[in-house]
């Protein structure tokens, strides 16, 4: 693979807040453009993005306010290409080392879109950042499958654990009775005994009713005897027969009365008591069984939760092995189980500013390895120590970073003031407004056709 393309030099005139700036960025590491607010720092980055990214990166108002001449951009790249934009419409001209002209398509083949617009990556959602990284390392689909399976198992385990707690709490509140059989007791034998007793008692009741009938017949017989005695003389024969009947009935009555008096009904109270005890015992058996069933259900749910935990652990190990086997653009960079970009164990929102910047530039660079530079605005969010650390990392990676910082101290490679590099004098286009031309301290120099204005030596950077 050929060397990544970097920016060798640039010259800008009348772009947004820039009056005239020439710059030769460091080949690797940080080139920090410093200055106060509204002096043209960000305009330099916007001009580079426009020059290399095309009209999609063109500022809404590219020409500097008050300038009589339109913006002019001249960027030389490490592969020898010269990129120029000039004129009212910012027409593009790309010349390769052999002198042939080319166009935006050639630039797009090696210039990373996010390298020109790093804030767009920084502003992505956690999932979008993770998707960018996964598309880069080529395990996105497989990792997403693992994450879906892990989430499904995790949700199921959560529900099973909740059910287990509910079952166990319910079982703990159920009564338990010691000393009762495990199975319900059968009441059939007692019921049969009860039916036999009730049958015998019914027979006794019928005999009592028959004794009453015999007694009534005896009364009628006595009455008949009395009537016959009154007619004794006339009906002696009938009297004798009646007396015989009385004797017979008296014997039957005595027998019936004696039998009825000797009859005793049997009580079913004991059987009923035993039946009630069986019902109470069986209720205890059922309560014990419900408690045992609830505990068994809780144990089964606990076992299922344990099995789910083992599956989750296995999938997590496989997921980790999948990511460990992928070639990441930065050591410590990965995608966590919440599908978030993570660096050194911290999700994006928990990273320091320097860690976020390092992670973003590493991913953006890897997305387009042919592009060896990244533009970074607002480096003032890093303190000097973080800035120095980030610069050392970029230099170690061979990455060219051109950034801006609200500062004028030694952390800056160059300082922009009123659209110019402090200490640098460049001739502006002859068509510039007279009052602007008067602001250039150095005297005009003659230029041969096609020559660029001379550049003063750049302030050496700290990084």
TrEMBL record:
Start and end residues of each Rad50/SbcC-type AAA domain: 9-283
BP term (GO), one: double-strand break repair
Coiled-coil regions listed in the entry: 204-318
Feature: compositional bias, Low complexity: 427-441
Family annotation (SUPFAM superfamilies): P-loop containing nucleoside triphosphate hydrolases (SSF52540)
Cited Pfam families: AAA_23 (PF13476)
Keywords in alphabetical order: Coiled coil
GO molecular function: ATP hydrolysis activity
Annotated stretches, region: Disordered: 427-463
Record InterPro entries: P-loop_NTPase (IPR027417), Rad50/SbcC_AAA (IPR038729)
Protein name: Rad50/SbcC-type AAA domain-containing protein
